[in-house]
Design goal:
The protein has about 240 residues and is α+β, with helices and mostly antiparallel strands. Helix content is about 45%, strand content about 30%. The protein has one domain. It contains seven helices and nine strands; from the N terminus they run ββαααββββββαααβα. It is rod-shaped, with a radius of gyration of 25 Å.
Length: about 240
């Protein structure tokens, strides 16, 4: 499973930069931290509210992108197995994990003065895709007698493509990539809030972002990557 950032949607560095840049305008114009505090009224919850509005304006954040590879085979038989045709498809595809920032509401951001902690209730991660990589796909197999006398080959290829797309999406929903995507989204949002708070002079402020299904919270766990496309192709051969 390889990860990469995709340009069509707002990625994590751009989202953070856009939010912080908007909030730091007050710092530049006001002359130091005092100007920024004056711009937001000197209250951390006011700074957080301004950051929230900036994030909502960005619409969707793509904190994580993963590539998966599906290997599917289909076989068709006739005349009790006397004639048959079999095809195999190796299909890579990219899946985006997105946060719909427009779903964030004022009530989702709360400030605890005692612990100096800002808590952000996140929407759940959404899966977009897969975007299949047809250029690097591979199809092979034994058409057999059935493939030569019927349209079995095209039917098997269509069946393989449908199954491969479904398999890519199922892989994307698995526990490990979902956990990594959720952690990436959590970190991106926490940075987007903590940076303007620190810039406004609230150096002890902490930000905790949570999903609706979070329990006591968990740190990201990194595991060995899954097989690359070339590895899968080599194994199939």
């Amino acid at each position: 499973m390889d990860t990469e950032q995709q340009p069509p949607r707002l990625n994590r560095p751009l989202a953070i930069a856009a939010i912080v840049a908007a909030l730091l305008v007050g710092l530049v114009l006001g002359g130091g931290l005092g100007g920024l505090k004056g711009l937001f009224g000197g209250a951390p919850d006011t700074v957080a509210s301004s950051a929230l509005q900036s994030m909502r304006a960005q619409n969707r954040l793509v904190p994580f992108v993963a590539r998966f590879v599906s290997v599917t085979s289909s076989k068709q038989e006739s005349l009790g197995g006397l004639v048959s045709s079999e095809r195999t498809l190796i299909l890579p595809g990219d899946v985006r994990y997105e946060l719909d920032l427009s779903k964030l509401k004022e009530g989702d951001v709360t400030w605890d003065k005692g612990s100096q902690t800002l808590t952000v209730q996140l929407p759940e991660i959404e899966i977009a895709g897969p975007e299949v990589d047809l250029k690097n796909s591979r199809e092979y197999g034994d058409n057999g007698l059935l493939g030569r006398i019927t349209d079995a080959e095209n039917g098997l290829d269509r069946a393989n493509r449908d199954r491969a797309v479904a398999d890519l999406r199922n892989q994307a929903k698995a526990e490990v990539p979902m956990r990594l995507a959720r952690e990436a989204g959590r970190r991106a949002v926490e940075q987007s809030f903590v940076m303007p708070l620190r810039a406004a002079g609230f150096s002890s402020a902490k930000v905790v972002a949570r999903y609706p299904t979070d329990g006591d919270g968990s740190a990201a766990e990194y595991i060995d990557r899954s097989r690359s496309y070339n590895e899968v192709l080599s194994g199939a051969r």
